Fold Isoprenyl transferase.
Amino acid sequence: MSLWAKLFSKQNQGQATEMPSLTEFKIPKHIAIIMDGNGRWAKNRHLPRVAGHKQGMETVKTVTKLASNAGVKVLTLYAFSTENWSRPKDEVSFLMKLPITFFDTFVPELIQKNIRVKTIGDISALPAGTRQAVLDAQSQTAENTGMILNFALNYGGQKEIVDASKVLAQKVQEGVMEIKDITPETFAGELTTHYLGDLANPDLIIRTSGEERLSNFLPYQAAYSEFYFTDVLWPDFDQDQFNLALQTYTKRDRRFGKVKA
Ligand code: FPP
């Protein structure tokens, strides 16, 4: 029996097993995921770390389809952080080739599902072939109006905040704006997620593999996000796990600092 079936089994009440439908869930508009545990998944199988990343890429495809089918508007995936450059050279090189393989094999399905590819982070520092694959995927899906699949590539949240501060400081220095005009809204307008408008802040942040920290992922945008941590390693994150995250989110009481009406 699947995990999901077990969770909703009515066996104790002598009734047939019931599989809940997505309509029973509150669907987060924006889900952001820290896809952690690829290395441990590979190690558990006596495989090289990169085998975990390859399998992790397959999970990216699965979760993209699940999120799109569920009606999620934005799915942001932490694919490569500004800190990941300090991993062994071979691993970095493999991670840099993954977007090429991913888009080579997956763009037709993205188009069929009306999904639009976008990125946050400094893609100018990526190897030319990787950068081109990302740019091609963005232009091939630019007309799509469904879910936004937003890859955080060479992304670092502290750098994003510092960069936004510099832009605002420059504007003040040039007399384009006054200090009093720096507000959470104008600040958010200088972040890389500003193109998402009122969808910029994730409703739900998922981190796999048992680690419970943000690791420089969307620190400004996460101010009111709900967090879901699971011990499951990213390559093992499947439909049951996705549904479990949605079920947990559905039960959360989001008050945004206010008291319940
Ligand atoms: C963290 O696991 C994972 C990463 C740093 C890379 C994530 C990349 C993918 C899931 C594939 C991305 C696919 C595309 C299409 C870009 P880890 O290596 O830190 O695992 P560990 O903590 O077990 O060592």
Summary: The domain at 27-156+201-250 is CATH 3.40.1180.10 (Undecaprenyl pyrophosphate synthetase). Residues 6-19 have pLDDT under 50 and may be disordered. The chain is about 40% helix and 15% strand.
